[in-house]
């Protein structure tokens, strides 16, 4: 919180409203949880005028002399705050009303962080509610807290390491299921079951299978897996992510079902894995995000990788309370620093098949290391 206040002073901002969306999801809650430990767990439901509003949302209002949580949860016990104001959900009070009351009394320069978590109605109500005390227009600072979050504390790294151990257990369970006759949904069920038993929340399981009866295309609509039966020689891929106490794992793996990989399959996987390993090797203190991206990109370019067809226009991202900055792209001059945690990934589609690979690392004084040695199910072929 002290570092945040220093940043506010440097930017000439008197107060910032940090917005969060929870409601049972594992996205967009992170800035408020990071700063005060609060998660808005109530399901996000449509407002009913005169009855309730803003269920499943929260806002933290930070100035130089106070930090006030505004939420719909009277049982929450936030830390590092000076006050906790709770919505009167019985009369339709909104978070904007609470925020206006917190900021009442003097004009000031006000910023808002987390506008991607807000509905248009919420932003409009907030803008109207703070207009009497806002000096000029609201300032948008959506990356303000994310900049602080990119360098992890030892406690955060320990949580990320534990999250990695959950991913490892999940992939080991999936390996037992990945056989001729299993369905894609059976594999996902094994992944999810292990994660759930270890107190993790599953975020995504993106599945693509390449084979005689599968071209890697996804079903029309959620989920991304299907009841497709896996056959010998199919190349199954999954990008699996979830969170333990808010802190994420994000790992992608590939496996050929009950056969030795073909040359095309082996080539696709080798390119995915080699490019990720090149990026990992480049993620050393003193390098830049661009250096990390270029290490992978140059290897891919030498193998005629089709960047235009890539399903994700980056070689990875920061990892913590979600998928976050830095985004691994050439041209980003941000330095790689000790304490950064990164998910470095690549999906390669070529010659009628495809494969994916991903590692989650932490940058140390000695260089990068895996947060946890998660099993590579390809090597079990």
UniProtKB/TrEMBL annotation:
Entry-linked SUPFAM superfamilies: Creatinase/aminopeptidase (SSF55920), Creatinase/prolidase N-terminal domain (SSF53092)
Annotated Creatinase N-terminal domain residues: 2-151
TM segment ranges: none
Gene3D superfamilies named in the record: Creatinase/methionine aminopeptidase superfamily (3.90.230.10), Creatinase/prolidase N-terminal domain (3.40.350.10)
CDD domains: APP_MetAP
Annotated ranges, domain Peptidase M24: 159-365
Record Pfam families: Creatinase_N, Peptidase_M24
Record-given protein name: Peptidase M24
């Amino acid at each position: 919180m002290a570092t945040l206040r220093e940043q506010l002073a440097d930017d000439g901002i008197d107060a910032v409203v940090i917005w969060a969306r929870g409601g049972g999801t594992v996205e967009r809650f992170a800035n408020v949880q990071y700063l005060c430990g609060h998660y808005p767990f109530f399901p996000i439901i449509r407002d009913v005028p005169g009855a309730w509003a803003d269920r499943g949302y929260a806002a933290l209002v930070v100035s130089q002399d106070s930090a006030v949580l505004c939420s719909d949860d009277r049982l929450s016990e936030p830390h590092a705050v000076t006050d906790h104001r709770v919505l009167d959900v019985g009369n339709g009070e909104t978070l904007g009303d609470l925020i206006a009351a917190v900021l009442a009394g003097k004009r000031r320069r006000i910023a808002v962080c987390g506008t991607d978590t807000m509905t248009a109605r919420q932003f409009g109500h907030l803008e109207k509610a703070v207009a009497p005390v806002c000096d000029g227009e609201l300032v948008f600072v959506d990356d303000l807290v994310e900049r602080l979050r990119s360098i992890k504390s030892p406690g955060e790294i320990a949580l990320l390491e534990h999250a990695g151990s959950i991913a490892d257990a999940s992939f080991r369970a999936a390996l037992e299921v990945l056989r001729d006759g299993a369905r894609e949904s059976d594999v996902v069920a094994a992944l999810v079951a292990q994660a759930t038993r270890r107190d993790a929340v599953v975020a995504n399981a993106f599945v693509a299978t390449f084979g005689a009866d599968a071209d890697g295309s996804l079903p029309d609509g959620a989920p991304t897996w299907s009841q497709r039966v896996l056959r010998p020689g199919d190349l199954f891929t999954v990008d699996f992510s979830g969170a333990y106490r808010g802190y994420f794992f994000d790992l992608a793996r590939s496996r050929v079902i009950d056969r030795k990989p073909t040359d095309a399959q082996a080539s696709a996987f080798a390119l995915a894995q080699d490019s990720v390993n090149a990026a990992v090797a480049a993620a050393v203190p003193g390098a830049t995000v661009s250096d990390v991206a270029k290490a992978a990109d140059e290897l891919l370019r030498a193998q005629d990788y089709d960047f235009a067809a890539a399903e994700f226009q980056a070689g990875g991202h920061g990892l913590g309370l979600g998928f976050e900055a830095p985004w691994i792209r050439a041209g980003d001059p941000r330095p790689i620093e000790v304490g950064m945690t990164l998910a470095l990934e690549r999906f390669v589609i070529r010659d009628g098949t495809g494969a994916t690979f991903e590692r989650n690392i932490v940058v140390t004084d000695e260089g990068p290391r895996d947060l946890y040695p998660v099993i590579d199910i390809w090597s079990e072929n």
